[in-house]
Design goal:
By secondary structure, this protein is of the alpha+beta class. The protein contains 4 helices and 2 strands; from the N terminus they run H-H-H-E-E-H.
């Protein structure tokens, strides 16, 4: 059961990149998506298994929902911790 739960958490995060790519097409939320993709890539690079875990992602990003169910769309936006991380990533290059 534990293996199934871990794989389920990873599958959810696999959909995340698809959602961020869709968000890039929306001019109102394009910058948020670009910032979130930078965070996603950094998390993936720093993980020993090259995975992005929900437990590392959630503290860095807020999710708002547009529209109502069943056509709701997640809009990801870095929070203050996410922007602090981005600043650190930028300064380390």
């Amino acid at each position: 059961m534990l293996v199934y739960f871990i794989n389920f958490k990873f599958l959810i995060m696999g959909k995340l990149m698809n959602n961020l790519k869709k968000q890039l097409k929306n001019p109102n939320h394009k910058e948020y998506a670009k910032d979130c993709i930078k965070i996603y890539e950094w998390l993936k690079e720093t993980d020993p298994e090259n995975k992005v875990w929900e437990s590392r992602w959630n503290p860095l990003v807020n999710v708002n929902w547009e529209r109502t169910y069943p056509k709701s769309i997640p809009i990801h936006k870095p929070n203050i911790l996410g922007y602090t991380l981005l600043k650190g990533i930028k300064n380390s290059k």
